[in-house]
Amino acid sequence: MGTTSDVLGVVRRVLADLLVVTVWVAFLTLAALATAWPRSVFYALLVGGIAAWVEITADQKD
């Protein structure tokens, strides 16, 4: 079991990830609805954006 600061760091990271993914999904959804993107483009950008976020933040230490 980790220390309190370790646990708080994990909680902070999960909340930050949740916020970023939520904003990304909302932005893409609004953009896709406003411009009538094909569904395949929407899903490609959705998965690609989340994969990029994971790749960028995977090696960061709190």
From TrEMBL:
Keywords: Membrane, Transmembrane, Transmembrane helix. Residues 12-58 form the DUF8119 domain. The chain crosses the membrane at residues 14-34, 40-58. InterPro entries: DUF8119. The keyword Transmembrane applies. Pfam families: DUF8119. This is DUF8119 domain-containing protein. The lineage of its organism: Archaea, Methanobacteriati, Methanobacteriota, Stenosarchaea group, Halobacteria.
